[in-house]
Every structure is written in structure tokens, then in C-alpha cells.
Amino acid sequence: MRAKLSYAITAAVLVFYFVLVGSRGVMLIQSGTVITVTFGVAVLILPVIGLWFLWKNTQFVRRANALAAELDAEGGLPVDELKRTPGGRIDRDSADEIFAKRKAETEAAPDDWRSWFRLAVAYHDARDTPRARKAMQRAIALHDGRTVEA
Asked: What would the DSSP string read from start to end of 41-94?
């Protein structure tokens, strides 16, 4: 719940920032000189890109959460079997062991979104966020019935 609240607050702050920056861009455009109009258009591009990125990220999170809920209802969520250090950090060897298991599972069933979801969790536990995101995107695409590139 805390993560959802943090995400909502961050998104709200970003939207406020985008509106503020956008209003400055409009003010520059309304000034009417060539330089201010050029700067105004350039300033307006930033909030548009930011809003697009925020929207895409929010969609990704919602879809990933929906997959997690579906997998949980099926009883297929990966169990946290990782060993931890006394400080609570994940033991690297333990993460590597689980990762190897998840990778083999995914190689055995490459068209199963569930195995890709569990592989994404393993990547995340191994602190490989870019690969975790790609694996989750593949899980989402397979779940939605879309074709996926290798």
C-alpha cells in the first residue's frame, strides 16, 4: 500500500510540475516574438514527453499488478525462498540459484506468461532492473496474446 501511495504522490507532483512548465511555455508563446515562441514551443515539448512517459509507466505497473493478482488467484506466485543477510539484504548466491531455476522454467515453457512473470521477479531480486522490466513486458504481451520478439 505504501508503494501505491508513494507512486500516486510522485505522479501528482510530476503532473503539477508539467502543468507549471506548460503554463510557462504558453506564456512564452503569447509574448509573440520569434525567440520567445521558439522557446515556448521547446518548453511545451518537455511536459508532453513527461506525461507520455508517466502514462506508459502507469499502464505497465497496472498490467503487471493485474498479472500478479491473477497469478496469486491461481496460487502460482513465486514463493520468497531467498536467503538473506543479517541486515535483510538478499544473498547473491541465493538469488543466482533461484534465477537459474526460473530461467530453466522459462526456457522449458517460452510461451507461458507465468514463467516470464516469475523470471521477471527473479531478475528483480538479482537487481537487474532492465531485464526484469523486459521479462515483465514479455509476460504482459504473452498474456494479452500479442506476438513477442525474441
From this structure: HHHHHHHHHHHHHHHHHHHHHHHHHHHHHHHHHHT-SPP----B-TTSPBPHHH
